Amino acid sequence: MATPIDLHEVAIRELETRSRYPWRIKACASTACQSAGAGPAYSAMEREISNSGQTQTVQLVPTGCMGLCSRGPLVRVLERGGDETMYQHVDAEIGSDIVKSHTGQRIPIQSNVLDHHGPFFAEQRRVVLANAGIIDPDRLESAVAHGAYLALEKAITTMTPDQVVEEVRASGLRGRGGAGYPTGTKWSLLAGAAGDQKYVIANGDEGDPGAYMDRTVMEDDPHRVIEGLAIAAYATGANRGYIYVRAEYPKAVERLDRAIRSARRNRLLGRRILETDFTFEIEVRIGAGAFVCGEETALMASIEGKRGMPKLRPPYPTERGLFGNPSMINNVETLANIPAIIDRGSEWFRSIGTEGSPGTKVFALAGKLENTGLIEVPMGISLRTIIDDMGGGVPSGGAFKAAQTGGPSGGCIPEQFLDTPVDYASLSELGSIMGSGGLIVMDDTVSMPEVARFFMEFCMDESCGKCVPCRAGTVQIHGLLDKICTGRGTAGDLALLEELCVVVRETSLCGLGQSAPNPVVSTLHYFRPEYEELLVDREAVDA
Amino acid sequence: MRERRKTIEFVVDDTEVDAYEGESVLQAARRHGFTIPALCYVEGLSVWGACRLCVVELAEQHQLRPACAVTVEEDMEVITDSEAIRRHRRTVLELLFAEGNHVCAVCVSNGACELQDAAVAVGMDHVRFDYQAPVRTIDASHPKYVSDPNRCILCTRCVRVCDEIEGAHVWDIAGRGRGARLVAEMGKPWGEAMSCTWCGKCVATCPTGALFYQGRAVGEMRHEPDMVARLVAARRDHQWIAPGAHDE
To answer: How many Cβ atoms are within 10 Å of B224's Cβ, its own excluded?
Structure first.
């Protein structure tokens, strides 16, 4: 059996190696930058380091996401004991110039320097993404040098399972998948459930259009997810875990697989973890990409190899879940918060965010903004700060119209509510939801009925077809919206649309159907005249 | 001898009634004569909870829940009928009628159809939605039975009875959303499904005319007027000429 890893020794060794290099270049190798050409840029830098004889002085590290994806590929140059320079739009040519000129002759390439002290970065508080863009996700040592598995070690060697549950409960952490259920409560339900076989599951079936928070966490810091899941297992008495990842995230699957293997080699997973009595195994399961499989009962059916369809609750998974055993499903981002909570304590965690929504939230900023990408902000920050300061506002020539949060289950928030703090309660008061973290900004060229139709088409296609209101109701809602959008709708259609939204919301079986009408209801609430203007008999409405 | 089951008291539409422990609201209420329409639920099979027709209101939660899936609890107050509940049930039925191709006048099950009965019961006399008029192919490949997906409401009674009672699991659902459909043996014609035992339980439990016996459909009636001539000839010549024999 392999000897257990000495985390501190590995960390010291890694830091020693690092300190041998006067220069370090960190190049984002995450999916967004890859698609912008990070691959050739990386090769060019590698080649140039070798050609210019800098192999002993420059360490080139592929890392995860640095956040400002719209300016990618991003590269950071760090000088030992000196400052850090961030570069944007680094293609192969700029890449080799950086090596030639910046690390070679200390002359930065001014044309591509990005101000990393600007609000996009300054307003962030990185807990979940603390290591994203910093470590090499494929190397366990790199993660360990930044504190990975210290929280697991602390939990299993110095805390009882009850103490771990209590710490998580005290932190006030709420589920980051969208619904915001208190994580500590969920954990104590599983901990209290009877049974020898229990399962913990990480939900990485991120399906909202435009959202890639969980993908980034899994790709860029897989060990954090594994550590969070292992701590969850220890606290709740589970000995098997699954990470459920959608097939559209091949890189996340690859990195998680590699991370699990290296964790197992180092006795951070498997039998007698770190020489304690705690045994825990993790397996990655790949979903076929159905949106409904993000719903916990459908997800479990999918892991079991069955058709991904939701089941009636109760029984809740903590009573009877995966393979009929007590199980618990946490979102990837939720689990990624756990190591920091255990490591630094619930009080520290509560110092971030708001009373009702402690901690941070990762958002995928998209749409009509100067800066788009991934941000992690403390809860309670205003939408205006996110959109105007961090996102740089709507590009010149356009005017802000609405912010869409929560994807197909969320709603649109108009200008007058932009000062609302981002937390679970405030967003739901506005008829939207926190959701998993998609945030799409729309300018005044966008038609809100069309936005509603877009999201309804998504829900219609993604409905599993089990219950009637969702299967047939989304089709009819979509049909009515299409009628209205194409100028064929009547006031009667609009009334029918509203009535049907209520039925679908109140009678659907699972969260997909129950929340599917949200984009329609919220746009009707804030932008009703836009619908009415499109009606055939709009004069009748006016009268 | 069967052990006597424990009973608990609860309230249905302001009437105090009893329920056996573990019984669902639907079972207990129906036992006491309350009518709650349901399409996917059938006594004896697992609870599917998908038609959403049996929705009732739980007084404390102010929330609609399927009666088939709620276990009776002591002193629970259930409302089985209200304007809101009726409106929801009507809408769900309208959605079903608009989704398939349900033409009662030419249906094998006309007059013996649970979908039709439910529509009558909740007063759904017209459909406000656009008919989707899907193009669906009839499967008459089985020697004994026919599947007409135009009348299928995806209640999965056939899937469950075949799996849970017969143990054959011939049926399942393929596709999702509006593309969801009943398939035999991973999409084979029913007649080629080797796992089918011809037991007919699926036909027996189907609430609509989606699964039925061969020869029962409208237009399948065959008259035989030339039989008279054959009978007369047989009596006269003491010889039976099989139908069509002299054509060869």
So the answer is: 8
